[in-house]
Specification:
With 427 residues, this protein is an alpha/beta fold. It has one domain: TIM Barrel. The protein has helices spanning 2-9, 12-24, 80-97, 110-120, 150-167, 182-185, 204-224, 240-246, 266-273, 297-313, 395-403, 415-423; strands at residues 37-42, 45-50, 53-55, 57-61, 101-105, 123-128, 135-137, 140-142, 173-178, 230-235, 252-256, 278-283, 288-289, 294-295, 324-329, 378-383, 389-393. An eight-stranded parallel beta barrel has the order 4-5-6-9-10-11-12-15, surrounded by four helices. Strands 1-2-3 form a three-stranded antiparallel β-sheet, with no helix packed on it. The chain has a two-stranded antiparallel ribbon with strand order 7-8. A hairpin with a 5-residue loop joins β16 and β17 (389-393). α10 (297-313) runs parallel beside α11.
Length: 427
């Protein structure tokens, strides 16, 4: 497989010709029209359907950042030939692994959403950050967003409406996703990951402002588009009672969850308080042991195996809550810029930036153990003379490939089949 990927990378000019031909013929590989995506609820639970077919989200948080770059690097502004070659390398691997969806922020141009769908069969969940990292208000950049400010609220809603109008008919759009742990942003003073907020010190007023604004945005999206459901990307279950109070028309509860090998009672909590399906917008484990200071691929694969097993077990018709519709594993390749953001960009940093007792292999009380630069299910190499880097799949990649080989919605698949499937997976 690696040799095949290298061959793709060395034939960029050929790919440009292929892309030009495909763009000239709209819908060269698929129907150019957007497909209907909806949530189905019945006595078995809740699930997603795409064009009338049951659809479990085998998703991936995917991005492209060469070593030495950071958040300021714009992959989509690169020459088409480089973008095509990179997509062939990366998304070919993703497709081979069994993924069917990627999560992208709304900086991705519509034509690349269409290209990814037509050439790889991968849907895109389009994510509006909802002011998480700042926003323009009356032509002024506001870094720390006040969700109670009328002008800021108006600017965010207008930006969301612009996104939906621009993308709603683009083939390959799956779900609208709003925010990214914006609730944690009420507590953190940096874009870097930190220890989870103290639940005993809630920002109640600010939380009501945030979720009431999300409610306005959801209603605006429903007015503009009835073909795709809307989700939020909450940080775990924080403020779920305020969410239930403020948001009236949410289709899917998306959440970034890092609890270790099990999600605990999350499925039951969401069913009880919101009554809508659960989508994990981020989850997973890093591949570095902060105690021994060495790479630990087996631990990473073990956590993903446990997480995905619960998602399968909690899917519709398996005798449990039935509200799990899939997830986006975090993440495809290591982010070498995640610790420090602007410094030592060519160093694979081994400093842990936050603590989590759910990951027992390297947790010590009072010590950080989560390494933000090591969450990739693929390791990343230096760029070649074409400006492209090679990937080295970790054990987690091959574990996910085995997991996704079973479609939990395939007719006749019961809980016993899921138990057998996961028990036979080899790390």
């Amino acid at each position: 497989m690696i040799q095949k990927l290298q061959l793709h990378g060395s034939s960029i000019s050929f790919k440009v010709l292929v892309l030009a031909s495909c763009i000239a013929i709209i819908g060269c590989a698929r129907d150019p029209k957007s497909v209907m995506v909806k949530v189905i609820s019945n006595h078995d639970g809740q699930k997603l359907q795409v064009a009338g077919e049951d659809f479990m989200i085998f998703g991936m948080n995917w991005d492209y950042f060469p070593i030495g770059t950071n958040y300021a690097y714009n992959f989509w502004a690169q020459p088409d030939e480089l973008i095509i070659a990179a997509l062939d390398r990366e998304l070919g691997l993703l497709k081979e692994m069994g993924a069917n969806t990627i999560r992208q922020y709304n900086s991705i141009p519509p034509r690349w959403v269409k290209y990814i769908y037509e050439h790889f069969g991968l849907f895109t969940t389009l994510n509006h950050p909802f002011g998480r990292y700042g926003i323009l208000v009356d032509s002024n950049w506001v870094a720390s967003v006040d969700y109670g400010d009328p002008q800021t609220r108006k600017a965010i809603i207008a930006d969301v409406e612009t996104m939906v109008s621009q993308y709603k008919d683009v083939p390959g759009i799956l779900i609208w996703l709003l925010g990214n742990e914006n609730n944690y942003g009420l507590h953190w003073n940096s874009a870097e990951s930190q220890n989870l907020p103290d639940q005993a010190k809630p920002q109640v007023v600010q939380a009501h402002q945030l979720y009431s604004l999300l409610n306005e945005a959801i209603n605006a999206i429903h007015t503009l588009d009835d073909q795709h459901p809307v989700a939020i990307a909450n940080g775990d279950l924080q403020y779920i009672d305020i969410i239930a109070e403020e948001i009236e028309n949410l289709d899917i509860f998306g959440c970034n969850v890092y609890r270790g090998v099990s999600f605990g009672d999350l499925f039951e909590q969401v069913e009880q308080k919101l009554g809508i399906p659960v989508l994990f917008t981020e989850f997973g484990a890093d591949a570095f042991n902060s105690r021994t200071l060495v790479e630990d691929q087996k631990a990473q694969a073990k956590y993903l195996l446990g997480n995905w097993r619960e998602i399968y077990e909690q899917s519709s018709g398996k005798g449990n809550t039935g509200n799990a519709i899939g997830g986006y594993t975090f993440q495809f390749s290591d982010g070498w810029w995640k610790f420090g953001l602007d410094s030592h960009l060519d160093t694979h940093d081994r400093h842990a930036s936050w603590a989590n007792g759910g990951y027992s292999e390297d947790f010590s009380p009072g010590q950080n153990n989560m390494n933000e630069e090591w969450f990739g299910i693929c390791a990343k190499g230096a760029c070649d003379d074409q400006g492209l880097y090679q990937l080295s799949p970790r054990m987690a990649y091959f574990t996910l490939k085995q997991i996704h080989a079973l479609n939990p919605y395939k007719p006749g698949v019961k809980r016993s089949h899921i138990d057998k499937h996961f028990s036979e997976i080899q790390l």
